Amino acid sequence: MNSFDRYHRQTLFQPIGVDGQEKMMNAHVLIVGCGALGSSVAEMLTRAGIGKLTLIDRDYVEETNLQRQHLFTEQDAYEQQPKSIAAKEKLEKINRNVEIESIVGEANAYQLEQSIDTVNVIIDATDNFDTRFLINDVAHKHDTPWIFGACVSSSGMTFTMIPKQTPCLSCLLHITPTFGATCDAVGIISPAIQMVVSHQVTEALKLITEDHENLQSAFTLFDLWKNQYQTINVTRAKRPDCPTCGKQPTFPALRNSTSTKIESLCGRDTVQIRGRASHLIN
């Protein structure tokens, strides 16, 4: 069977075509987080024929994940499988032609910089802003596009960040809303996750196939339950004095990454204390 046969319907889509499929089959995508967003993003990209996926996640599958994290099974939860390992096992059964690199651990500054050399796009599938600020700094330091995504309850938001062109996460936080609630506090429905995933994967495919003209330049927000959809023009948000994407970047998240931080992990009775070495304390 011709290696393109399985992607026939995708190559018929004119913005991708055969040339775009070849670019996808040679692309490397880094997915930070392998929970609700990350596992679904990984599945879509695997089915699309991306050449290589690197998955980074520190967490384990548990029963409460199964309502929204489509790759995982009851057996994974029973065995408390690491999410990145469980995802790799499923993805390799979906498309054996995709190389899956699975990293069980925290997406700290060292790990991100070790993983980024051949990466075309980084996809944010995390649940905390400490990690997002690290992604932001690493992406801009290495001139790599990254796609922000977040969701809670029935709402979600996404934005595609391109170094030297768009505002970065630090710039955006001065003008855009963020979620104050967490899924542990107010819950979440699976369709909201899939909406964010659809935006992130589509933007990744545009970047990989170099269809830059059709990239979403606005910050996108929605609430599926309330039938609300909004885009915000953030062009003017880019700040020349920004410590990450400004004229003289200092990459503060990377500089501060060795300081001690304490945070709860979403969905687990676990607190993480982070310093130079990372430990999970139950």
How would you describe the overall organization of this protein?
This protein is of the alpha/beta class and 282 residues long. The protein has a single domain, classed as NAD(P)-binding Rossmann-like Domain (Rossmann fold, 3-Layer(aba) Sandwich). 33% of the residues lie in helices and 20% in strands. It is built from eleven helices and eleven strands. The protein has helices at 8-11, 17-25, 36-48, 74-78, 83-94, 109-115, 129-141, 169-172, 183-186, 190-208, 252-255, and strands spanning 28-32, 52-57, 99-104, 121-124, 146-152, 155-161, 219-223, 228-232, 261-264, 271-274, 278-281. The chain is globular. Residues 259-265 and 267-282 have low confidence and may be disordered.
List the helices and strands and how they pair.
Elements: H1 8-11, H2 17-25, E1 28-32, H3 36-48, E2 52-57, H4 74-78, H5 83-94, E3 99-104, H6 109-115, E4 121-124, H7 129-141, E5 146-152, E6 155-161, H8 169-172, H9 183-186, H10 190-208, E7 219-223, E8 228-232, H11 252-255, E9 261-264, E10 271-274, E11 278-281
Parallel strand pairs: 1-2, 1-4, 2-3, 4-5
Antiparallel strand pairs: 5-6, 6-7, 7-8, 9-10, 10-11
GO cellular component, one term: cytosol
GO molecular function, one term: sulfotransferase activity
Domain THIF-type NAD/FAD binding fold: 7-243
